[in-house]
Amino acid sequence: MNVYSLVLETAVLMILTGLCSELLALGTEELERRLDKGMAGGVILGLMTAFPETVFVIVAILDGFYQVALGSAIGGNMILFTVGMGIVSLSYSLKYKTSTVKLDRDFTLELKALIISLIVLSIITIIGELNLVTGVISLMPYIYYVTSRYRHFSSLEQHEKEGNMKKGIAYLLAGGIPLVFISDYFVSAIQNLSLYVGFPPILVSLILMPIAGELEEKVSAIRLIMKSPENVTTAVMSFVGSKIENMSVLIGIIGIFSYGGVALASDRTEFAAVILVTIITTWLIKDRKLGRIEGLMLLSLYFILVSILAFTSA
Hints:
calcium:proton antiporter activity; transport; NaCa_Exmemb
């Protein structure tokens, strides 16, 4: 198979992944109407929008492509904390004629969990190996986040809300089942493409897999924001919730199920870039605000970092 066929195959698989991801988004939005913003946005929507990367990681591990698994796990943070946040900021400012996105006080819990996840990921990067022990440790931030969110949700007064459960589940199955089959071909295409272009598999998967896998998350965010300005917190919560999962659960899965562990010595540059992006984004939204200029800066940061990574890997 020549490089042009590989590029075409990868492009088609990205489009199919995007369509499956959109069905997942529709199903999740149907289910989230029955829950509060934190559970709906951060946990449910975040969990389901991270489903494509989760499938990619599991399939890559089963195939023995650990660098592809790593790139898929951390690549979402790179694109969502830059391009994703930039899109949220610009969409909100254009729709509602304001220069600053203001998030609800409830978002503080996401910030705490994100900081804990960031600290754990940084420690694992310094250690330089993903194994059973570091994999289990990596799971802790997400367990803390979900249990904290559930306790908060349980303490609220419950009201009957709209939302068609059967319709939501049908959308999730329609998007999730095909994605499981597509992902195996996608992972193989990424591995083969990286061999042809001469870039490390972790870099190729870090760039390409999130573009397809995160498509529905950006679409969901824009759709939520267009409906109501109050939905911006839910949109950002879904971003942060899914990336907390990526940094903890997906990294943990790789460590736990990789035979003999995975050395990170050759991948520290990519991990450092993701950690840097996460630190910058966390710093910008620590006051629960995100300005239009800051959104543009994050958009630019993505292309700058990808260019640097491509240059250093060439």
